[in-house]
């Protein structure tokens, strides 16, 4: 997409606005598929928590993707988008047995990540095909909040608890069809990923009826020019060879599963916001926009980097700005960032806004959530309307008149 296309979409649909480039999503999906083309059975399950708009789910479904879900609501959205139950993978954390049972009744693949629920579920449903999430105790990820494979993580069953896990499976006669791991997001060193894969291979040897191995995801995407990213092609070459060799050792051709979220949609996303005010203080020039961390929380939550461009005047002389929002507390997108000269009314574009951006948006300060647009075949298609005041009131119940006048 070009800056002029984004400006036109901002004029057409208003601000703030999320825009997703369908072609970029498709190219990322094809890139991952091609990297693992030497594996006979490859399955990509889109981690929909990254971006759960139904239109995006439908786009990926048409490409052959399955879904990785983490809640019963995501399962329901996947079914609503047209996915067959067998194409949906359910990997919750800390949920009740009742929710897992409800999802199980829908016919999706269950992935269990703790011994307590595993034993309870296996006792009641020994014939249901189950996947087990292993914690390999491998530290990976660019931020403590997105590193999930370390020893203090709440995710997965410790690989050191494998004897206990095996005993539960033997006692309940459970049907274990898959082993899963996920070390964290923003993986830079593929050797760390390959090391964790060896732990998964060793764990898999304890189960005789496996159908697949799920290696999670967490591939890093570039956030700025010349930024490093996971070398998917090199990983594909090395892991494919090792996976095929393991299948030979195991005596059965297994399916290799990945569950990318950010990798597929992050770079496809743009967040557009209008500059309300340019404010000079004694030490800083602020560009205050018509949005805040209610719409894009990642810079405040993770300290994440989003490249910011002035798409209204991209050729202007560069100056230093702190880009801030309108939320009534510290609300900073960027400090002392070099951006083409900004004037009030200009449109700023935030890159890498496809993953974990709208999906974590809120109505904080009673602000409306923005619209979402899919750019496809040279046109913008509205896939979520801007919220209205009626949306804020929906589900709220006022006091009865008699009580309100007391």
TrEMBL record:
GO terms for molecular function: diaminopimelate decarboxylase activity; pyridoxal phosphate binding. The active site is at residue 328. Pfam families: Orn_Arg_deC_N, Orn_DAP_Arg_deC. Substrate binds at residues 298, 302, 329, 356. Keywords: Amino-acid biosynthesis, Decarboxylase, Lyase, Lysine biosynthesis, Pyridoxal phosphate. Residues 23-266 form the Orn/DAP/Arg decarboxylase 2 N-terminal domain. Its cofactor is pyridoxal 5'-phosphate. It comes from the Bacteria. Its EC number is 4.1.1.20. Residues 18-354 form the Orn/DAP/Arg decarboxylase 2 C-terminal domain. The modification N6-(pyridoxal phosphate)lysine is found at residue 49. Pathway: Amino-acid biosynthesis; L-lysine biosynthesis via DAP pathway; L-lysine from DL-2,6-diaminopimelate: step 1/1. It is an enzyme of class 4 (lyase). Pyridoxal 5'-phosphate binds at residues 218, 356. It catalyses: meso-2,6-diaminopimelate + H(+) = L-lysine + CO2. GO terms for biological process: lysine biosynthetic process via diaminopimelate. Belongs to the Orn/Lys/Arg decarboxylase class-II family. LysA subfamily. Specifically catalyzes the decarboxylation of meso-diaminopimelate (meso-DAP) to L-lysine. PANTHER family: DIAMINOPIMELATE DECARBOXYLASE, GROUP IV DECARBOXYLASE. Homodimer. HAMAP family: LysA. This is Diaminopimelate decarboxylase. It comes from Flavobacterium xueshanense.
């Amino acid at each position: 997409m070009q800056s002029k296309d984004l400006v036109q979409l901002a004029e057409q649909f208003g601000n703030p606005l999320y825009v997703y480039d369908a072609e970029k999503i498709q190219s990322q999906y094809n890139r991952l598929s091609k990297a693992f083309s030497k594996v006979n059975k490859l399955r990509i399950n889109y981690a929909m928590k990254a971006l759960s708009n139904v239109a995006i789910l439908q786009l990926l479904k048409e490409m052959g993707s399955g879904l990785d879900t983490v809640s019963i609501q995501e399962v329901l959205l996947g079914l609503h988008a047209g996915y067959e139950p067998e194409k949906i993978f359910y990997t919750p954390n800390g949920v009740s047995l009742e929710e897992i049972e409800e999802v199980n009744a829908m016919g999706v693949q269950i992935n269990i990540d703790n011994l307590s629920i595993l034993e309870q579920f296996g006792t009641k449903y020994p014939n249901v095909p189950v996947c087990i999430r292993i914690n390999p105790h491998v530290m990976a990820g660019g931020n403590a909040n997105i590193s999930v494979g370390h020893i203090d993580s709440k995710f997965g069953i410790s690989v050191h608890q494998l004897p206990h896990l095996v005993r539960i499976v033997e006692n309940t006669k459970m049907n274990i069809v898959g082993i899963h791991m996920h070390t964290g997001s923003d993986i830079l060193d593929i050797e760390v990923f390959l090391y964790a894969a060896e732990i998964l291979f060793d764990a898999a040897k304890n189960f005789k009826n496996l159908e697949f191995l799920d290696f999670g995801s967490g591939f890093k995407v570039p956030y700025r020019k010349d930024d490093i990213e996971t070398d998917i092609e090199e990983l594909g070459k090395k892991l494919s060879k090792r996976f095929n060799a393991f299948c030979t050792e195991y005596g059965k051709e297994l399916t290799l599963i990945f569950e990318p979220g950010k990798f597929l949609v992050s770079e496809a996303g743009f967040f557009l916001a209008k500059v309300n005010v340019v404010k000079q203080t004694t030490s800083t020039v602020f560009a205050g926009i018509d949005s805040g961390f209610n719409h894009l929380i990642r810079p405040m939550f993770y300290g994440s980097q989003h490249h910011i461009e002035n798409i209204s005047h991209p050729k202007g002389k560069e100056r230093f700005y702190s880009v801030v929002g309108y939320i009534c507390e510290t609300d900073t997108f960027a400090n002392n960032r070099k951006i083409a000269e900004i004037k009030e009314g200009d449109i700023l574009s935030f890159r890498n806004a496809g993953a974990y951006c709208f999906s974590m948006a809120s109505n904080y300060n009673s602000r409306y959530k923005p619209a979402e647009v899919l750019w496809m075949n040279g046109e913008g298609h509205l896939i979520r309307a801007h919220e209205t005041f009626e949306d804020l009131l929906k589900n709220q119940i006022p006091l009865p008149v008699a009580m309100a006048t007391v």
